[in-house]
Write a structure and sequence with these properties.
The complex is a heterodimer of chains A (359) and B (449). Chain A has a domain of 238 residues. In chain A, 76% of the residues lie in helices and 1% in strands. Chain A is built from 16 helices and two strands. Chain A is an all-alpha fold. With 449 residues, chain B is α/β, with parallel strands linked by helices. Chain B has three domains: 30 residues; 203 residues, 3-Layer(aba) Sandwich (Rossmann fold); 139 residues, Rossmann fold (3-Layer(aba) Sandwich). Chain B contains 14 helices and 13 strands. In chain B, strand 3, helix 5 and strand 4 form a beta-alpha-beta unit. The radius of gyration of chain B is 25 Å and the shape is globular. Classes of the chains: A mainly alpha (359), B alpha/beta (449). The interface between A and B is large, with 39 and 36 residues.
């Protein structure tokens, strides 16, 4: 567990950088930081599920919806403080994840994708069935304000950025440790060959359910954060587009990599805004200008996949190793779970490492 | 050392000259500006988003995604009207800069783009943000920032909350009033007939039905069918309406689902009288959709012929060449937005932009954000609308009435007089006796004196 202090150190450095950025940048950038933190939380859970345990989910948007609605209902009806709401929302999403996970453990490949797709479409529609509880199309408003001790003039967006980033970092540290623990090793074993894993005494079904619970919990936390960041929980926010965006973020960042979850979230939050700004500032006609962001987003996805088949994080690591040379690459500590596994300098560790995912 | 000393002096000298030059330039430009408009006060940066030369406003619009067909024409139409106003003197000489961003009808995206407009682009006001679920994701934030949130493009009566959302104003006829006006017409003209409802299963449809139920006796209503915009299979709903024996079907539906209702009825040989709310009955959009959907299904139909006789209501000027607003809007359309169709959506964007320019002119030469809000609360002339606005300090709803019309050869032909009402169950529906305004010759409204 030598790595735990190191991860905490990285988390504290990132927190410090975000704190400085949030003060230096304008309020809208603070809001974007909060948005990115929400996506990082959700994408990190999905990247663990898909990258480490080898299961796919097209329905993590539904778990975000569960976390978000739980948050809204607890805040509105019980007036709980935010931290308590966050924990309970995560627990509710975890229970939902366990239920779905038990079914999902029996399914593979396209069948699992289909089943989770169903979930992603069906869960948000429940809001229309019980309009009295869930507010139907209009959704539920969540009022979230900065604590009084920061002063009345403290910008809400900065507080949202701080809270979201802190929560996202806690989730990342927990996921990183989980991925390096016995549970994480079991996931990799199940992913690479479930028969061999079973012969080794791993309970394959339990490992899969566990991965689903972890992924759903992260999504639930992300949903709770989304509720406080946007102030509204409505079914229109949790369409299938969201679930696909999460998977896009995981794949484009680098499946199985938590750093990749950050890259992927940066792409899905910043690229459309940036391209919209460019498109509108060049005075294109509206029918062209409004569709350019979608087209450009598609081009970015295609380019990343062509140039970095292992995702952005894979590409970054390759660039680093190209600069440092093969000796340095094999020395990179994060690729080596334990010292005696670290192989000598050749191509083997690279492929091994990419397969394992970098946590 | 001596050398660096000299350099420093040189630098100081250059900076002094430069500073003097800048000061001279700015003083000369300001003096010329004040001399050219000597009769009134100088234009100042009186509020966020207002400079001496520009007024920057923003909006969230569904430019892509499921709500885009039809509705994506609205913001370009408003932009065309602003371009016309800018070319004709602007608002007290200021040009309107209209920045509308795509939210794809997704509330999360709306929350993000509205914060971008307010926090980063520093807009003076949010204008005509489109959609009920989308705008609800922005309204609390706008209230907290005290940003005027004017003329929301949605008929939800939720915008009429002056104590909760003091800066928010509706504009179009709210769905409850619309339901009442249609309901009264049905109750009077189809006495003893069986009525069926077909409506969108959300706030839009339910508010409309609320208004209908205020006027239509429940004994007349034989079937209530709903649809959700994500499911295009309305065949079961239409079959249920047919089985109930409905002779009149009232639809609170968006254009695509009005078209699907018509085509599915046709397939079943079910031919009730159709009554469709304004939102789903723009003849040009609807006729096009019926033709296109039939073509997808492999048959050739004339959409315009099929939608003849549909009963609807309208609060915007008619698309008739004799109407002064039609003449004005067509002129601007041909000059600034000729690629988009000249249809109800274009008229909507034009009319709401006209109302905004009127409100800005009433807000004064150097308005603060609060000035715009109080200018609207003092009431606005109806401009192109067929009925007056309800604006006051206690009422933030928009237009108060509409007329009943039937679709004939691609246009809505007015039947009877304009009717006005309110959102309450007991509020009377009364014919509007005032005359409609004519379009100003300049095409630009004039400030209230």
């Amino acid at each position: 567990m030598r790595t735990l202090p190191r991860r905490l150190g990285v988390a504290i450095i990132v927190a410090a950088i975000v704190a400085i950025l949030s003060v230096k940048l304008n309020a809208f950038r603070d809001y974007q930081i909060a948005e990115i933190a929400v996506y990082v939380t959700a994408v990190a859970g999905l990247t663990v599920l898909t990258g480490l345990s080898g299961q796919i989910s097209l329905g993590n948007g539904a778990f975000m919806a569960i976390g978000a609605y739980a948050t809204a209902l607890l805040v509105i009806h019980l007036g709980w403080p935010f931290y308590a709401v966050l924990v309970v929302s995560a627990a509710i999403a975890a229970v939902a994840g366990a239920v779905v996970g038990i079914a999902a453990a029996r399914l593979r490949g396209p069948y699992l994708a289909g089943a989770t797709l169903l979930l992603g479409v069906a869960i948000p529609s429940i809001a229309f069935v019980y309009p009295g509880t869930f507010g139907a199309d209009q959704g539920l408003n969540v009022v979230f304000s900065a604590p009084a001790f920061l002063g009345v003039n403290f910008p809400l967006t900065r507080w949202q950025a701080w809270v979201s980033t802190l929560v996202a970092l806690v989730v990342l540290v927990l996921l990183a440790n989980l991925g390096r623990s016995r549970i994480g090793r079991n996931w990799r074993a199940v992913r690479d060959n479930d028969v061999a894993a079973a012969l080794d005494g791993i309970n394959v079904a339990a490992a899969r359910v566990r991965a689903f619970v972890v992924s759903a919990t992260s999504a639930g936390v992300a949903g709770a954060l989304l509720a406080i960041v946007t102030g509204l929980v409505a079914p229109g926010a949790f369409t299938i587009t969201l679930s696909i965006a999460l998977l896009t973020g995981a794949v484009i960042g680098g499946l199985g990599s938590l750093a990749g979850a950050l890259w992927g979230s940066l792409v899905i939050v910043l690229v459309p805004t940036y391209i919209t700004d460019v498109a509108t500032s060049h005075g294109l006609s509206s029918s062209v200008g409004s569709n350019i962001p979608i087209a450009a987003y598609g081009v970015v996805l295609i380019l990343v996949m062509l140039l970095f088949p292992q995702g952005i994080q894979g590409g970054v690591l390759r660039l680093i190793s190209a600069f440092l040379g093969p000796d340095q690459k094999s020395r990179t500590r994060r690729t080596a779970p334990t010292p005696h596994v670290t192989p000598s300098a050749d191509q083997a560790p690279a492929s091994q490492h990419e397969k394992e995912g970098t946590l | 050392m001596n050398r660096s000393h000299r350099l420093r002096w040189q630098a100081a000298a250059i900076m002094t000259v430069a500073a003097l030059g800048v000061a001279a330039c700015s003083s000369s430009s300001s003096s010329s500006a004040s001399s050219s408009t000597s009769s009134s006060t100088a234009l100042t940066a009186s509020a966020p988003g207002i400079t001496p030369t520009t007024i920057t406003i923003g909006s969230h619009q569904p430019l892509t995604g499921p709500a885009a067909p039809g509705y994506s024409e609205i913001a370009p139409a408003s932009a065309a009207y602003f371009a016309y106003v800018n070319a004709n003197g602007g608002v007290y000489g200021r040009k309107i800069v209209y920045k509308y961003l795509d939210d794809a009808y997704n509330p999360t995206t709306t929350a993000s783009v509205v914060r971008q407009l307010v926090l980063q682009d520093n807009v003076y006001a949010i204008f005509n943000g489109l959609g009920t679920p989308t705008h609800l994701a922005a309204v609390s934030f706008l209230t907290s920032q005290k940003v005027p949130d004017v003329f929301v493009a949605s008929g939800c009566d939720c915008w009429n909350a002056p104590s909760t959302y003091p800066e928010t104003f509706g504009w179009q006829l709210d769905y409850i009033s619309e339901g009442k006006i249609l309901g009264q017409y049905i109750a009077q003209h189809f006495k003893g007939k069986k009525i069926g409802y077909f409506y969108q299963d959300d706030e839009f449809g339910m508010d409309g039905v609320k208004g209908l139920d205020y006027e239509i006796p429940s004994s007349m209503v034989v079937s209530r069918q709903t649809y959700v915009p994500t499911n295009v299979n309305v065949a079961p709903a239409v079959a249920a309406l047919r089985a109930s024996g409905a002779q009149v079907v009232v639809a609170f539906s968006i254009p695509a689902f009005t078209a699907l209702l018509k085509l599915n009825s046709l397939k079943l040989g079910f031919n009730p009288t159709l009554v469709v709310s304004d939102v789903g009955s723009d003849p040009i959009t609807l006729g096009g959709l019926v033709t296109a959907f039939a073509k997808q299904a492999g048959s050739t139909l004339n959409g315009n012929a099929l939608i003849n006789g549909i009963i609807t209501d309208a609060y915007l000027p008619a698309l008739s060449t004799s109407d002064s607003w039609y003449v004005l809007f067509k002129k601007i359309h041909d000059q600034y937005d000729a690629k988009e169709p000249l249809d109800g959506n274009f008229f909507y964007g034009m009319s709401v932009a006209y109302t905004f320019v009127q409100a800005m002119l009433n807000a004064g030469r150097n308005p603060t954000r609060a000035d715009l809000v109080s200018a609207i609360e003092k009431g606005l002339p109806q401009g192109p609308m067929v009925a007056p606005f309800a604006y006051s300090s206690t009422n933030h709803l928009g237009v108060t009435g509409a007329y009943i019309g039937t679709i004939q050869n691609g246009v809505v032909v007015q039947q009877g007089s304009v009717l006005t009402t309110d959102t309450t169950a007991t509020g009377a529906i009364t014919p509007y006796t005032g005359s409609e305004q004519q379009a100003p010759a300049s095409g630009v409204p004039s400030a209230a004196s």
